[in-house]
TrEMBL record:
InterPro entries: AAA+_ATPase (IPR003593), ABC_transporter-like_ATP-bd (IPR003439), ABC_transporter-like_CS (IPR017871), BCAA_Transport_ATP-bd_LivF (IPR052156), P-loop_NTPase (IPR027417)
This protein's name: Branched-chain amino acid transport system ATP-binding protein
Key word Transmembrane helix present: no
Endoplasmic reticulum in keyword set: no
Taxonomic classification: Bacteria, Bacillati, Actinomycetota, Actinomycetes, Micromonosporales
Extent of the signal sequence: none
Annotated ranges, domain ABC transporter: 6-238
Keywords, in A-Z order: Amino-acid transport, ATP-binding, Nucleotide-binding, Transport
MF term (GO), any: ATP binding
Gene Ontology BP, a term: L-amino acid transport
Family: Belongs to the ABC transporter superfamily.
Length: 242
């Protein structure tokens, strides 16, 4: 279907002989934000790694904009419009601006000059722009997070995968992230958000998927969960879902 930015079908796999993911099916449409929640160790990060191309599934398919990318290397998936945000990596000895320049490499699909792309991303984060020439190692945690978001803007994704971004961040920084996700969604970006905090996920997601033991066990809208607070708590803690 046209509006499907990401489709995962029957995805299974793990680490060596240990299977962690068991036949996952999910879809994220253009402009949609889908949250993936669940207790520690159920396989959320492993699923993200398989979708992004960092790990290979043992079976199943990953479609980006209707194209089968299951055998396409991760770096090429970035050029095809898939950006993955994991943690807060940055090259500490390089300046903020040079960190951003490095991410202009996959941009040519948008035919934008590297410096224009960097200036455009910095314009969204004035605090980061004020520190554009200082080494990334001198940034605060929140500023480093802004750098990650600025990199994401430069890559101009069609599909955004975000893994546990809000962990340990000040509420004001999380608020900034959520605002950015909403803006990207309004521009048509499809986001799959792995989020420990169900409250954070509910404030931005259109749909919420819950995982347990490597499978998706439930899907609800935030409205359904608000009507039944016990349900959300049970799903997140695992055990007796649905
Ligand atoms: N590199 C690895 N080698 C072997 N097993 C791994 C590896 N990485 C993760 N695992 C195992 O795979 C399972 C799923 O881990 P994963 O990190 O995907 O879970 P998660 O749902 O993202 O958890 P969390 O919320 O704690 O990050 C866990 O049992 C974990 O111990």
């Amino acid at each position: 279907m046209d509006s499907e930015a990401l489709r995962v079908t029957g995805l299974s796999g793990g680490y060596g002989a240990v299977q962690v993911i068991f036949g996952i099916d999910l879809t994220v449409r253009r402009g949609e934000t889908v949250a993936l929640c669940g207790p520690n160790g159920v396989g959320k990060s492993t699923l993200v790694r398989m979708i992004s191309g960092l790990s290979r599934p043992s079976s199943g398919t990953v479609l980006l904009g209707g194209r089968d990318v299951t055998s396409v290397p991760g770096a090429k998936r970035v050029r095809m419009g898939l950006t993955t945000v994991i943690g807060q990596q940055a090259f500490g000895s390089l300046s903020v601006r040079d960190n951003l320049r490095m991410h202009t490499y996959p941009v040519p699909r948008h035919h934008e000059r590297p410096d224009t792309a960097v200036d455009g991303a910095l314009a969204v984060f004035p605090r980061l722009r004020a520190r554009a020439d200082q080494p990334a190692s001198t940034l605060s945690g929140g500023e480093r997070q802004m750098l990650v978001l600025a990199k994401t803007l430069i890559q101009r994704p069609d599909v955004l995968l975000i893994d546990e971004f809000s962990l340990g961040l000040a509420p004001v920084v999380v608020g900034g992230l959520l605002e950015l996700i909403r803006r990207l969604a309004a521009a048509g970006v499809a986001t799959l958000l792995i989020e420990q905090s169900v409250n954070v996920a509910m404030s931005v997601a259109d749909r919420m998927l819950f995982m347990e033991h490597g499978t998706i066990i439930a899907e609800h809208t935030p409205a359904e969960l608000r009507e039944s607070p016990d349900l959300a708590r049970r799903l997140v803690l695992g055990g007796h879902a649905q």
